[in-house]
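REQUEST ID: PR-0412
SUBMITTED BY: lab tech R.K.
PRIORITY: routine
TASK: structure prediction, single protein chain
INPUT:
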Amino acid sequence: MRKVTTVIDINAHIRALTCDIKVQNGVVTAIIGFENLAYGTITAIKFHAVGYNSFNDIVPINGKEKFFLIIQDIHVGINETAKDLKAVLPNPDIRKLDLEECQICYSNGSVSTYKGKEEYTYEFEAFDFAKAEEKEIREALEDKFGRGFVYKPQEYENGWICGCGYFNLSDSDKCLSCETYKSDAFSVCSADVLKQIVMEHHIAEEERKKRALKQQEQEERVKRQKYIKIGICAVVVLIFAIFLGHSIVMSGRTLYSSEKEMKEALQGKYTHYYDNGDAMQQIEIKGDQVKIRWAFGGDLDSEVKEWNYKKGTFRTFQTYTVLRNGDIKDKNGTLFEKGGFMPIDGSDSDLSSSTTSAYESGY
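STATUS: complete
OUTPUT:
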């Protein structure tokens, strides 16, 4: 564990008070910020203020060194930080401002008065993330009590430090910041209780992993169903498109007088190319046998089940169309040009050879 030292004003209702001065068009404005402690939601705040000019001389207001600076109609929640709260200053010569809390109005209608500065220096311990064994303890404590519960609770004569680092007065049996009961917070000082908390953390982690896996499986199931629906819709659209474009397609086909004529005309190889001109896929027709090859390796054997010479199509496991120039196109519109050369990975054989690793043009 590592040592932590802090100075706390036990009478303060706010901390980390900041003030900047902005001068524009002769108007001097104070830009104020602070962190609200855990006594309630602040709706208005009054400060004791002392103004100074550029020479660090006090600028009196109505003949007095101090004046009240009031900011109203605000909403600063518990443990929230107020930023850029603006207040116009009563004298344009002010270039620096010393502020001290005076009174605070809360959303419940109560008003708290600052009793004056009463600071104490406290030393306590924090779990160190850099050490593996303490990192696990720290994560377990945050799992049980919430983020920021990383300190070892400590009791003092006039108050106690909670595991979240907040100082509470002695009469508080519950932390005003994280709302952890004092008895629960101090229970982590027991080694046995700490072991139990770590064990519960392990169980909770396993449950979270199971829930995450279940959620992932559910999302994948929904995604698969979505893809199935998309696929079905695509098929329906494709069928409809084919029907509408039938007459146009027929005009671009090669028709034959007989099955024999068609079969003889289509013998050979047909190649599909990438946009850059490299061969991607090749179809070889030999008799009624068809072999489909891919440049990256692998092939598929099929046979022509129907030579539809009247419509200029032939069917294997899918239907191919013969175009007017002698090229063929599958049902998805993939174009295979007559002939061509395609180097491939691997050395799968064509319909006439068992050793070739590239396919020559049919011409």
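NOTES: Residues 352-363 have pLDDT under 50 and may be disordered.
REVIEWED BY: pending
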